[in-house]
């Protein structure tokens, strides 16, 4: 995640005044394995999880003696990276169609006509897929929110680890999503107060404070890049209105390594698999096993990722085993 602009002082002060800070970061400490926890995880994985994940593809791997369980909630990334890639491919297809049409004008033959017809059909499919991406992302996000809600209500989940969030950006992102949600709530309260024929002195004071916050927030929002806006707006509802804390699942150093890959390295499947997938997944598993005390540990990560190998490797070297499940919302299973 890129560096984010610091909150204006008033916005931060009002936010902290209206909402107490979320719980301090929890760090897991060694303690005897509780057999009740082991039984709890087994029941959760074999029965409870599937009740919370209707219309999702669920795979589960239970480790004997595991007193904790990772729940990977597959998502479609909250950024414009996918769109940029699709737009690039679409432009290449438009260029190809343009060449074929120019060729057809000079000399018409069956081979050129067939190639042009196929290219135009592919182009229509690409345009449809591009349009559907936003709808699929939102559908998958809603499914993830619903699952988090059930995990919060029934399984004491109070933290969720997030792709794109590092230890360096975790605290700021939490403040930003809190501000985003508070601004939504403030606008609703302002509208309700305006509907009253007459406000009491306390209500007038509240209205002034709310309006001041919204104005400051809107000015702050203008300073954000589209990428940051997408990330904040995407993750804000995941907190269930501040009931769940967003945690870092990424390493800034590992992410920087991705941006430093040469063009040659990016075309090497082995390097891509290690740098973009394996190293980051290993780091995320270690984060989840050392930075929280939760028995159920959800992580929001791209649907293309699979933590099963990383969890298996962790279990080989750790005396404390962890079970693993992967939940792919319906919208992540198809490209259109």
Instruction: Classify the beta-strand content into a percent band.
Output: 5-15%
Helical segment count: 11
Low-confidence parts, pLDDT < 50 over ≥5 residues? 1-5, 19-25
- Write down the overall mean pLDDT: 88
Tell me, briefly, the overall form: globular
Percentage of residues in helical conformation: 55-70%
Give the H and E element order.
Answer: HHEEHHEHHHEHHHEHE
- How many angstroms does the end-to-end distance come to? 27 Å
Regarding quaternary structure, how should these chains be classified? single chain
The count of DSSP E runs of length 2 or more, i.e. the number of strands, is 6
Q: Gyration radius, to the nearest Å?
A: 24 Å
Helix-and-strand structural type? alpha/beta
Write out the strand line-up for the largest beta sheet, numbering strands in chain order: 1-6-2-5-3-4
Main sheet overview = 6 strands, mixed
Describe it for me?
The chain is of the alpha/beta class and 336 residues long. Helices cover 60% and strands 12% of the residues. The protein contains eleven helices and six strands. A six-stranded mixed β-sheet has the order 1-6-2-5-3-4. Helix 1 (9-18) packs across helix 6, helix 3 (81-106) runs antiparallel to helix 4 and helix 8 runs antiparallel to helix 10 (269-290). The longest helix is centred in the middle third of the chain and has 46 residues, at 110-155. It is globular, with a radius of gyration of 24 Å.
SSE order and pairing:
Elements: H1 9-18, H2 35-52, E1 56-61, E2 69-75, H3 81-106, H4 110-155, E3 159-166, H5 170-195, H6 201-222, H7 226-235, E4 245-250, H8 252-259, H9 263-266, H10 269-290, E5 296-302, H11 308-317, E6 323-329
Parallel strand pairs: 2-5, 2-6, 3-4, 3-5
Antiparallel strand pairs: 1-6
Helix pairs in contact: 1-6, 3-4, 5-6, 8-10
């Amino acid at each position: 995640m890129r560096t984010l602009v610091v909150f204006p002082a008033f916005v931060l002060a009002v936010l902290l005044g209206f909402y107490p800070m979320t719980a301090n970061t929890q760090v897991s400490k060694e303690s005897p394995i509780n057999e009740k926890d082991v039984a709890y995880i087994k029941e959760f994985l074999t029965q409870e999880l599937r009740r919370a994940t209707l219309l999702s593809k669920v795979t589960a791997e239970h480790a004997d003696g595991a007193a904790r369980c990772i729940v990977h909630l597959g998502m479609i990334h909250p950024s414009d990276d996918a769109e940029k890639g699709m737009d690039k491919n679409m432009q290449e297809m438009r260029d190809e169609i343009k060449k074929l049409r120019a060729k057809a004008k000079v000399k018409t033959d069956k081979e050129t006509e067939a190639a042009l017809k196929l290219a135009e059909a592919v182009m229509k499919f690409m345009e449809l897929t591009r349009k559907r991406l936003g709808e699929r992302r939102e559908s998958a996000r809603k499914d993830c929110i619903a699952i988090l809600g059930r995990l919060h209500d029934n399984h004491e989940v109070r933290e969720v680890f997030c792709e794109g969030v590092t230890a360096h950006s975790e605290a700021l992102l939490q403040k930003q999503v809190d501000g985003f949600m508070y601004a939504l709530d403030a606008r609703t309260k302002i509208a309700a107060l305006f509907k009253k024929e007459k406000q009491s002195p306390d209500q007038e004071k509240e209205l002034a404070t709310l309006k001041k916050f919204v104005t400051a927030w809107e000015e702050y929002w203008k300073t954000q890049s589209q990428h940051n806006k997408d990330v904040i707006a995407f993750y804000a509802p995941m907190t269930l209105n501040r009931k769940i804390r967003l945690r870092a699942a990424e390493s800034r150093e590992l992410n920087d390594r991705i941006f430093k890959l040469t063009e040659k390295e990016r075309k090497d499947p082995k390097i891509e698999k290690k740098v973009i997938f394996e190293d980051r997944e290993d780091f995320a598993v270690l984060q989840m096993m050392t930075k929280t005390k939760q028995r159920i540990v959800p992580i929001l990560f791209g649907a293309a990722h699979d933590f099963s190998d990383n969890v298996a490797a962790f279990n080989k070297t750790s005396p404390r085993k962890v079970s693993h499940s992967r939940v792919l919302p319906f919208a992540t299973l198809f490209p259109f």
